[in-house]
Amino acid sequence: MAAPLFLDEIGDLPLAMQSKLLRAVQERAVRPLGSTAEVPVDVRLISATHRLLGAEVAAGRFRQDLFYRLNVIEIRVPALRERLDDLPQLCAALLTRISAETGLTTTPRLTPAAQLRLTQHSFAGNVRELENLLHRALALCGSEVIDSSDLGLPDDTDLALPGVTLEAAAALQAQTGSVLPGDLAAHLDEVERRVLVAALDRHRNNRTAAGASLGLTLRQIRYRMARLGIQPGNDPNAADDVDNPPSR
Description:
This protein has 248 residues and is mostly helical. The chain has three domains: 3-70, Rossmann fold, CATH 3.40.50.300; 80-159, Helicase, Ruva Protein, domain 3; 166-228, Arc Repressor Mutant, subunit A. The protein is 46% helix and 7% strand. The protein contains ten helices and six strands, in the order βαβββαααβααβαααα. It has helices spanning 15-27, 53-58, 64-70, 87-102, 112-119, 126-141, 166-176, 184-202, 207-213, 218-228, and strands at 3-7, 29-30, 39-40, 43-47, 109-110, 145-146. Helix 8 crosses helix 9 and helix 9 (207-213) crosses helix 10 (218-228). The longest helix is centred in the last third of the chain and has 19 residues, at 184-202.
């Protein structure tokens, strides 16, 4: 049975190394360093990347032949901020692993306040950021309980606004002139709400089409609609979503 071989961040592999990897995959053989003979290998390749490899191929940064060799079964993992329901299980698993690695006999647990604070964070760095955050919290808490204050996150609510960048703030200032809103979170929520409602109206409440017009997946637009309290319209002529086909 082929042994699994995991290649992380395959999208960052230099082109020269991509050629070597492609040859190894095609020939199912490698030449160890310092050897003159090739050694056959039997592995099942599993690769991961945060990049869109299709776009990398189009830009000439990733070999098309290697892409098709690797892209047999593709599993898309949503960003952590889009699956916050997984946080309790992820935190428990990460804390168990970190405790074992650091030699702790008891695995620390998160207080309800700490769990709530984590759900308000945007997690731009996904699970790696969560793991780093828990590493730091475990090192600083000094007890078997990790509270929200041990997480080292700001007390304000700006982290509950995923995707807010300096560019977005600059665009906001350009739209509003010299007068900035007193409540940035509420203002951005209202802007996002208006955009989503307009897209849904244009596409007769078809969330799939509305999301695609904004560069969002169905899951992403669902998440934003739920966060902003937007209910799907009741237009009987509305087209069905991909995940909600018409009844027969």
